[in-house]
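HUMAN: I'm a chemist; might I ask for a sequence paired with its structure tokens?

ASSISTANT:
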Amino acid sequence: MPHPADGEGRDYVCAGAYWVLKGLLSPIFFVLWRIKVEGRENIPKKGPAVLAANHQSFCDSFFIPSS
């Protein structure tokens, strides 16, 4: 049996933390900053897509996933 310190299960914790933080922070971001998404209609409804940000600021790392 693998030892928990070997990293098994860590991916699930990180994924869970991502969704919890996204659920908590997204409403705050929408209230404090008016996030404007342009071109959302160009993202396919099904299948993969690549979203590439130009990262004009550090905050892009927070705003893009919340959108």
